[in-house]
Each structure stands twice: as structure tokens, then as C-alpha cells.
Known about the structure:
Number of strands: 8
CATH class: Mainly Beta
Order of helices and strands: HEEEHEEEEE
Oligomer: single chain
Helix content: under 10%
Number of helices: 2
Shape: elongated
Largest sheet: 8 strands, antiparallel, barrel
CATH topology: Porin
Distance between the termini: 24 Å
Amino acid sequence: MRYIFLIILSTFIINKADAQIYEVGIFAGGSNFIGDVGATDYISPNQPAFGIVARWNRSPRHSFRASLIFSDLKGVDGESDDPRRKQRGYQFDTSILEISAGMEFTFLDFDLHSSGMKGTPYLYSGISLANHDNYYFTPTGEYISEGTSSWAVGIPMALGYKTNIAYHLVLAAEIGARYTFSDELDGSVPDSVDREVFSFGNTNNTDWYMFTGITLTYTFGRRPCYCNF
């Protein structure tokens, strides 16, 4: 019965899709990593990040959202405030491709069909998947590829502010943290169990990374009916 209900609900959503409003656009900003290698500053972008973002506005107070973001994650022990990391001298650089989907909640009504300029703070959360290549460190600090890649599952948490700058354009600025369930992004834990001896760092804490930037989206779609939401 539950699966039948989901099928019916999906069909209803598809049939009503042309009566909603959508946004598609770009994300541009920077990224920084928080883990066992490099600095531990929470907001300190050191690599560019670019991507695309889409929203499906289901009411003036919430939207379904999806994004695809590409960036490098880089950590350099020499830039850390921890003297032990500075002495160790490790550094890593890996590329990630993140897919994220979830829900965005606004603090104020954000009805794009009403007249005039409007703006509101918002919160976003959901689930993310970040594809990355696997590396490990030798005892001498050499950063070596394992020749494999993995998907790091995470929880995105973003705080931002958005406003309409023209009839069909919405500009937003946000700071977003990604808590992942992986400890492999910086090479401190090898992916292969055969290289488990090369693991180091705090195994009780998994990796984080941050995205800080802006989105510019174009809106389209007929005037929605928000009465049921």
C-alpha cells in the first residue's frame, strides 16, 4: 500500500509540474576542508568551486533544491595553527564532484509572483554525495593514489540570504557546511583495508568541507497555487 501511495503521489506531482515555479542557475564561490590534514579554520575558502543549482518552489516558505558542484579540496599542514601539524608537514589536494538534494526553508515569505523587491534569510539541508579519488600517506609523508574512487555520503547544512534583483533573477549568498560520514577525503584513512596500517589522525571525527559563495538563478513557470501548502 505504501508503494502504491508513493506512485500515485509521484504521478500527481508530475501532472501538476507546469503549475509551479522553478529556478535554475549557477553557483560560484570557494571551498575549504576541515579534517586531519591542513588548517582547521571553519570558513576559509582556498579553492574555487563552481556548479549548477535548481529549485522547485512549493510554497513561499519552502523549496525542493538540488545542486551539482565541482571543486578541489586542499589541506596544507604548514597553514595550520597546530604546531604538531606544522612539524609533520603533510599536504593533500583532491577533486570532488558533489551531488546534493534536499529542502530549503525561508524565514520570511518569498513569493516571486508578488510585486516589488523581496528578500529573506534561509536554511538548507538534505543529503549529499561527493565523489573523490582515494589516496594515502606513507610514513615519510608521500601522498600516493590508490587508483580507486569513492562516494562520501554527507549532510549539507547551509545558511544564506536571497533576494530578487530583477523580475526573473534571484541572487543568493550562502555559507554551507558538509558533514560527511567518511574519513578518507584527506588520505588519513586509506580506502583499502590492506593499507589500514597507514591510517592516522582522530578516527572519532570524520571529515568536513565548506562551500561559501553565491547563486544566480533564473525563474520560470506559471503562477502557482500555494493553498495546499
